[in-house]
Structure formats: C-alpha cells, structure tokens
Write a structure and sequence with these properties.
Length: 70
Amino acid sequence: MNDGKTTIVCTEIIINPSEKIAITEPKKGKVVSQKKFNKIQEEKSNELMEKFKSRNGMDLGNGINIKMGG
C-alpha cells in the first residue's frame, strides 16, 4: 500500500487473529543514528519495491494497490 508518502508491503494480513501476538524488543543488533537508520530504511524499501514491482504487473510505487484472492 502506498499513500504517496509511505509504502507498506505486506505478505499477509490477518484481521482477527485467534491468538494474541506479542512484540518483544530485539536482544541483538547494533545502535545506529537516526540518519543512518533513515538511509538503511530507504535502501530496504527500494529493494522491496523492486522485488514486488514485477508481481502480476502491480506497481507499488504509484497509488494504492490491494489484491485479495483465495
């Protein structure tokens, strides 16, 4: 999904999960500055955009695309 400013790439969305999901703080990794984090985030977003861009002709960079199927 893309609102023109933010892009979210999802592989699965569960509206009402049967089990609660707990998000825990990571135990490993490294501390980076906000500037470095922003750069990493932009690079990874671009990688994902390129990866998913070719899926079924969807262009995730131009508008909101939601594909649902079973």
